């Protein structure tokens, strides 16, 4: 086999040192790093459209490209028409996706690394069969890394086909962002990361958006004030929220007309008409049909590959990285998994022996406008644990509009949201932060860094920040403690 992209040859078989299944963040980073270190690695990806994985093709980057376009539209809604604007935004997204896909492939096309395009399935211990059309390739390996990611959870919905995506009016995020027609009425089932980001984004593009959430409030793990602030923002953007509701059934008709969604819960049954229904009900580990039992790889009840803190599975010489192992589904977690594995596979080269326990607090951002960012504990969680931990919990909270010494949001005309930092006054320790503001996807990393390195809140309070910036709000906010 050569160091080039290939599709499987009929019934060929080969042995490699390291086999990586899935061209995602962890998989590709590992393949490149191993090859650079003079190792032989084969990377299998089921679709050329997915070179580079979920994040760059159907996830983070294309969606945030569209979020940006939607923000531009919100600012200047006059011309062209919403439909034309949206079609050009999708084209812009697609141009970037194609470039990034090609750049990712080029990055892996390096001596020592081989990309095989086909679907992998274990047929024995550290033995995989790759299928592409009629062709089959059997590969045995010393080390196997499973990085197949996750796929959308598709609940069965009365009135829709068993696979709801067979109805062209029903989509997941993957299909929706490829369509150049702007849905006039978009209903969204699920109010997690994708549900909220798409609600904000499509309202910006000009769709009439309805979110159906089964919990009584948005982001139910957050403090109530945060849930209320998110709801207020979305309603201000024109999004209709149907919370504490379940989708009982859909009257679909087969004339291609609108869907009627029948909701239960709340005070009374309700109907919502929609041209497109987006299902964003979570993503499940992509292990179906992977033959894990034949490889001796254990999975849990959700289908996730069970791993230890070194990401080792129950099968010797087999690891799992990224979304497929369950837990938080973020590109940066997948990248950290790569670090953990690199240390093991390059052992003896002065690497540090990182484990999942070394991660420290992991932040997140939901890309609303403005973005909603979180790290560590909420106020409620901190107060619940205060007695046991001996914390004297203090909370600094200010609306963005009231942070007098932070003019950047005012300069951008975007003063929605708030800053909140929760601390233990006795030790000065930062317990958590909720930043719902312009630039919060950046500022949250600053707070995370301080938490990871046990800096007291006074370090953030007394730091010198550039001006005008969104970090400097921490000077004023934390002075209030
Ligand atoms: C709409 C959306 C928006 C998101 N936005 C963000 C965000 O803003 N920030 C963030 O951090 N995260 C975001 N995420 C989550 C993030 O994309 C994932 O957590 C991350 O990409 C997972 O990477 P991974 O390494 O697990 O594998 P993936 O990148 O998912 O790659 C797995 C690859 O394996 C391939 N594969 C699967 N099965 C097989 C098989 N049997 N044989 C061969 N190949 C196979 C797949 O085709 C895929 O390319 C988003 C996700 C979605 C869906
Ligand atoms: N900005 C980001 O970092 C970002 C953006 C998008 C996606 N992601 C990642 O992608 C993953 C998938 O996103 P998601 O929004 O699909 O999942 P999610 O887990 O964030 O939210 C799922 C939502 O669907 C609801 N739900 C689950 N089952 C349901 C059912 N049967 N019927 C109705 N509702 C149901 C849940 O209550 C929840 O509100 C997330 O976990 C996240 O880690 C991250």
TrEMBL record:
<keyword id="KW-0520">NAD</keyword>
<dbReference type="GO" id="GO:0016668">
    <property type="term" value="F:oxidoreductase activity, acting on a sulfur group of donors, NAD(P) as acceptor"/>
</dbReference>
<dbReference type="GO" id="GO:0050660">
    <property type="term" value="F:flavin adenine dinucleotide binding"/>
</dbReference>
<dbReference type="Pfam" id="PF02852">
    <property type="entry name" value="Pyr_redox_dim"/>
</dbReference>
<feature type="domain" description="Pyridine nucleotide-disulphide oxidoreductase dimerisation">
    <location>
        <begin position="362"/>
        <end position="476"/>
    </location>
</feature>
<keyword id="KW-0285">Flavoprotein</keyword>
<dbReference type="InterPro" id="IPR004099">
    <property type="entry name" value="Pyr_nucl-diS_OxRdtase_dimer"/>
</dbReference>
<dbReference type="InterPro" id="IPR023753">
    <property type="entry name" value="FAD/NAD-binding_dom"/>
</dbReference>
<feature type="active site" description="Proton acceptor">
    <location>
        <position position="467"/>
    </location>
</feature>
<feature type="compositionally biased region" description="Basic and acidic residues">
    <location>
        <begin position="351"/>
        <end position="360"/>
    </location>
</feature>
<keyword id="KW-0560">Oxidoreductase</keyword>
<protein>
    <submittedName>
        <fullName>Pyruvate/2-oxoglutarate dehydrogenase complex dihydrolipoamide dehydrogenase (E3) component</fullName>
    </submittedName>
</protein>
<dbReference type="InterPro" id="IPR012999">
    <property type="entry name" value="Pyr_OxRdtase_I_AS"/>
</dbReference>
<feature type="binding site">
    <location>
        <position position="323"/>
    </location>
    <ligand>
        <name>FAD</name>
    </ligand>
</feature>
<keyword id="KW-0521">NADP</keyword>
<keyword id="KW-0274">FAD</keyword>
<feature type="binding site">
    <location>
        <begin position="190"/>
        <end position="197"/>
    </location>
    <ligand>
        <name>NAD(+)</name>
    </ligand>
</feature>
<feature type="region of interest" description="Disordered">
    <location>
        <begin position="349"/>
        <end position="368"/>
    </location>
</feature>
<feature type="domain" description="FAD/NAD(P)-binding">
    <location>
        <begin position="18"/>
        <end position="334"/>
    </location>
</feature>
<dbReference type="InterPro" id="IPR001100">
    <property type="entry name" value="Pyr_nuc-diS_OxRdtase"/>
</dbReference>
<dbReference type="Pfam" id="PF07992">
    <property type="entry name" value="Pyr_redox_2"/>
</dbReference>
<keyword id="KW-0670">Pyruvate</keyword>
<feature type="binding site">
    <location>
        <position position="282"/>
    </location>
    <ligand>
        <name>NAD(+)</name>
    </ligand>
</feature>
<keyword id="KW-0547">Nucleotide-binding</keyword>
<feature type="disulfide bond" description="Redox-active">
    <location>
        <begin position="55"/>
        <end position="60"/>
    </location>
</feature>
<dbReference type="InterPro" id="IPR036188">
    <property type="entry name" value="FAD/NAD-bd_sf"/>
</dbReference>
<keyword id="KW-0676">Redox-active center</keyword>
<keyword id="KW-1015">Disulfide bond</keyword>
<feature type="binding site">
    <location>
        <position position="64"/>
    </location>
    <ligand>
        <name>FAD</name>
    </ligand>
</feature>
<comment type="similarity">
    <text>Belongs to the class-I pyridine nucleotide-disulfide oxidoreductase family.</text>
</comment>
<dbReference type="InterPro" id="IPR016156">
    <property type="entry name" value="FAD/NAD-linked_Rdtase_dimer_sf"/>
</dbReference>
<dbReference type="GO" id="GO:0003955">
    <property type="term" value="F:NAD(P)H dehydrogenase (quinone) activity"/>
</dbReference>
């Amino acid at each position: 086999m050569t160091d080039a992209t290939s599709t499987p040859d009929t019934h060929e078989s080969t042995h490699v040192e390291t086999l990586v299944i899935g061209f995602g963040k962890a998989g590709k980073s590992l393949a490149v790093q191993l090859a650079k270190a003079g190792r032989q690695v084969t990377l299998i990806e089921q679709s050329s459209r997915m070179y580079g994985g979920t994040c760059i093709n159907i996830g983070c980057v294309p969606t945030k490209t569209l979020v940006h376009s939607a923000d531009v539209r919100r600012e200047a809604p006059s011309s062209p028409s919403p439909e034309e604007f949206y079609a050009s935004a999708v084209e812009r997204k697609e141009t970037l996706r194609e470039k990034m896909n090609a750049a990712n492939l080029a990055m892996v096309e390096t001596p020592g690394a081989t990309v095989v395009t086909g679907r992998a399935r274990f047929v024995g211990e550290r033995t995989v069969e790759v299928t592409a059309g009629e062709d089959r390739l059997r590969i045995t390996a010393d080390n196997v890394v499973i990085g197949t990611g996750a796929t959308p959870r598709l609940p069965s919905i009365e009135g829709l086909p068993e696979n709801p995506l067979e109805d062209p009016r029903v989509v997941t995020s993957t299909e929706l962002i490829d369509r150049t027609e702007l849905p006039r009425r978009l209903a969204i089932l699920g109010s997690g990361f994708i549900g909220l980001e798409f609600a904000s984004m499509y309202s910006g593009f000009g769709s009439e958006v309805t979110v159906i959430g089964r919990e009584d409030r948005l982001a139910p793990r957050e403090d109530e004030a945060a849930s209320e602030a998110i709801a207020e923002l979305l309603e201000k953007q024109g999004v209709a929220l149907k919370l504490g509701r379940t989708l009982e059934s859909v009257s679909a008709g087969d004339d291609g007309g609108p869907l009627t969604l029948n909701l239960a819960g709340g005070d009374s049954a309700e109907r919502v008409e929609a041209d497109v229904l987006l299902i964003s009900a979570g993503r499940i580990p992509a292990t179906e049909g992977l033959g894990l039992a034949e490889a001796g790889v254990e999975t849990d009840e959700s289908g996730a590959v069970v791993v230890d803190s070194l990401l080792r599975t129950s099968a010797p010489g087999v690891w799992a990285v990224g979304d497929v192992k369950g837990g938080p589904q973020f590109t940066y977690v997948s990248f950290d998994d790569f670090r953990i594995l690199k240390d093991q596979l390059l052992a003896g080269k002065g690497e540090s022996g990182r484990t999942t326990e070394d991660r420290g607090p992991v932040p997140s951002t939901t890309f609303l406008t403005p973005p909603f960012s979180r790290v560590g504990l909420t106020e409620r969680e901190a107060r619940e644990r205060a007695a046991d931990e001996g914390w004297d919990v203090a909370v600094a909270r200010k609306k963005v509009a009231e942070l007098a010494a932070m003019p950047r949001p005012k300069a951008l005309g975007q003063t929605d949201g708030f800053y909140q930092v929760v601390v233990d006054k006795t030790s000065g320790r930062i317990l958590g932060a909720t930043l719902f503001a312009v630039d919060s996807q950046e500022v949250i990393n600053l707070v995370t860094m301080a938490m990871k390195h046990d800096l007291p809140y006074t370090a953030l309070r007394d730091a010198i920040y550039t001006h005008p910036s969104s970090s400097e709000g921490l000077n004023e906010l934390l002075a209030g403690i």
